[in-house]
Amino acid sequence: MMIKMNAKESVEIVEDVFVNVINEKGGKYQSWDELSESQQECFTQMKKEFQETYAKYKTCMD
Q1: 10 Å Cβ neighbour count for 19?
Q2: 33 backbone φψ class: left, alpha, beta (φ>0; ψ -120 to 50)
Q3: What is the chain's Cα-based Rg?
Q4: For the chain, how are helix, strand and coil distributed in percent, rounded to 5?
Q5: Most buried of 5, 20, 23, 47 (most Cβ within 10 A)?
Q6: Per-residue confidence (pLDDT) for residue 24, from 0 to 100
Q7: What does the pLDDT look like over 10-42, one tens digit per residue?
Q8: Element (H, E) at 27
Q9: Pick from 26, 3, 30: which is nearest to 17 by CA?
Q10: In the β-sheet with 9-14, what is the strand arrangement from edge to edge?
Q11: Where does 1-62 have alpha helices with state H?
Q12: What is the pLDDT of residue 62?
C-alpha cells in the first residue's frame, strides 16, 4: 500500500516484507524484520485504518 501524505511525504507498506518512508530527507527503506515489534504494530494499524477510510469513501469516487 502506498500512502501519499502530501507533496513531500509518502509511506509504502508491504506488510511482512518492508516499509519505505519517503520525504524531503530522502527514502528510508526498512525490511519488516528490521522493525521493532511496536513499529510493526504501528505500520500494520496505519495500513488497516487507511484501508477502512478508503472503503468508507470509495463510493464517492465512482
Answers
A1: 22
A2: alpha
A3: 13
A4: 45, 35, 20
A5: 47
A6: 94
A7: 999 999 999 999 999 999 999 999 999 999 999
A8: strand 26-31
A9: 30
A10: 2-6, 9-14, 18-23, 26-31
A11: 37-57
A12: 80
Residue with cell 520525504: 23
Q: Please state, as a whole number, how many other Cβ atoms lie within 10 Å of the Cβ of residue 11.
A: 19
Enter the C-alpha cell of residue 11. 509511506
Quick one: DSSP state of residue 35? S
- For residues 21 and 11, what is the distance between their CA atoms, to the nearest angstrom? 5
What does pTM read for this prediction? 0.85
Widest Cα–Cα separation across the chain: 39
> 16: which 3 cell numbers?
511482512
